[in-house]
Specification:
Chain lengths: 114, 112
């Protein structure tokens, strides 16, 4: 079946460095993608989203890149801070003719070292 | 403040017992969702509802039931038929169209 997966389960970065979290998706019909941040014991928090008619979108210190040719999604965090330590999930919405069902990846643990 | 409230935060179930997890939202969202999260894993969809009095099974609906009598509320019942209920349960809501889902802070269910 279709799936969303991540290349790296754990990513360690130094404080102040840039972080890049990658995600591969297999459903070429997916038209909407989201990145979430989840801290321990809490629910996922929305970070940024992108639609399939775009290849880049920027937020505050975060950028999402979408490469539809190779079905790849990435989240870039600039000047990574200790508060960025969390698990990051990508999610996709395969086109099903309506609705907003999301398929989630397994997550990447980001660890920020001081 | 607008948001999603899940209760209780921790819940314990005895063998053969049904338990109900509460989820309330005041974001005026049409759609609501229940996910299960196991340690070190992603979220798996249990049930979802796009409109009041209607809901659909997700990928792992067996052993669970839901109701959607009000727009604001989407309770999840974990029945005795669910043989491995220990997990972190997350409720979300969102518009029906491609927009972010907003999550509550979860209920952690354990077996006594």
């Amino acid at each position: 079946g279709e799936s969303v997966g991540l290349h790296l389960p754990t990513l360690s970065v130094q404080e102040g460095d840039n972080s890049i979290i990658n995600c591969a998706y297999s459903n070429s019909a997916s038209d909407y993608f989201i990145w979430y941040k989840q801290e321990s014991g809490k629910g996922p928090q929305f970070i940024i989203d992108i639609r399939s008619n775009m290849d880049k979108r920027q937020g505050q210190r975060v950028t999402v890149l979408l490469n539809k040719t190779v079905k790849h999604l990435s989240l870039q965090i600039a000047a990574t801070q200790p508060g960025d330590s969390a698990v990051y999930f990508c999610a996709e919405n395969p086109f099903t003719g309506g609705g907003n069902k999301l398929t989630f990846g397994t997550g990447t643990q980001l660890k920020v070292e001081l | 403040d607008g948001g999603i409230t899940q209760s209780p935060k921790y819940l314990f179930r005895k063998e053969g017992q049904n338990v109900t997890l509460s989820c309330e939202q005041n974001l005026n969202h049409d759609a609501m969702y229940w996910y299960r999260q196991d340690p070190g894993q992603g979220l798996r969809l249990i049930y979802y509802s796009q409109i009041v009095n209607d809901f659909q099974k997700g990928d792992i609906a067996e052993g669970y039931s839901v109701s959607r009598e009000k727009k604001e509320s989407f309770p999840l019942t974990v029945t005795s038929a669910q043989k491995n209920p220990t997990a972190f349960y997350l409720c979300a809501s969102g518009p029906v169209s491609n927009q972010p889902q907003h999550f509550g802070d979860g209920t952690r269910l354990s077996i006594l």
